[in-house]
Amino acid sequence: MGFDVTEKFLQVRLKDKKPNVSFVLGNIKNGLLFEMDEFDCAYIRKGPTSAYPYLKKVIKSGGKIIGLHPGDETNKELPLLFPNLFDSSIGTPILNLINHRINISKFSHSKIEAINSTEYIHSPLDVLKLRCFGQHPSIYETLKEKNLYEVSKIFEQNATKDGLPITFSCYIVRATV
C-alpha cells in the first residue's frame, strides 16, 4: 500500500504497479485512512516525520517501521562555496524533529542512525538545478542567467576529476511498535 500527498507521484507509480499493490492519495495532516493494526510494517521515504504517531495506530504491535529522512549534513559545503545561492543551517533541526516525533510516538524500541557519504555534482548547471529543485522552471532560468558565470568559476576552482564533492547525509529510523 502506497500513500502520498502528491497525485503526480502516485500517477507515476500506477504505470508500473504490480497487481498486489495499491496507492492512496492523502495528507498526513488529515491522519491515515487505515484501520487499527492493519499493517505489519511501514516504510517512510523522505516523508513527513509527523507520520510516526499515526503509524503507531495502524501498525500491529511488534511491527516494524523504517524511515529514511534527509540528514542535517546534506550539502553542507554549498553555502560555504555559494553563499548567495544556498542558506546554511545551524545545529541539527531535522534530527531534533525526528527525535521529538519518535519520543511522542512511544514506540517499544527506536534507533536513529546517521549516514554520511560523499557525492559529486558533475557540472555548474547541476549546482543551479540542485538549488532550484522543486521550484518553477523559470526560477532556474533566471538563476542561470544571473549566476552561471560565477558558479562556473567557483565550481572549476573546487571540483576534482569526479566533480564537486559534497556531503550526502541521511537519517535511518528503525522503530518497533
Summarize model confidence as the mean pLDDT: 93
Roughly what percent helix? 25-40%
- Rg calculated over all Cα atoms: 20 Å
Number of DSSP strands? 6
What is the CATH C-level name? Alpha Beta
CATH superfamily: Vaccinia Virus protein VP39
Instruction: Give start-end ranges of low-pLDDT stretches.
Output: none
How does the overall form come out from the CA principal axes?
globular
The order of strands across the largest sheet is 3-4-6-5
Description:
The protein is globular and about 55 Å long. With 177 residues, the protein is α/β, with parallel strands linked by helices. Helices cover 36% and strands 29% of the residues. Helix 2 (51-58) links the parallel strand 3 and strand 4. Helix 2 packs parallel to helix 4.
Short description:
This protein is of the alpha/beta class. The chain is 36% helix and 29% strand.
Protein topology:
Blueprint lengths: L1 E3 L2 H9 L7 E3 L13 E7 L5 H8 E12 L7 H4 L11 H13 L3 E13 L2 H8 L5 H22 L5 E13 L1
Parallel strand pairs: 1-2, 3-4
Antiparallel strand pairs: 4-6, 5-6
Helix pairs in contact: 2-4, 5-6
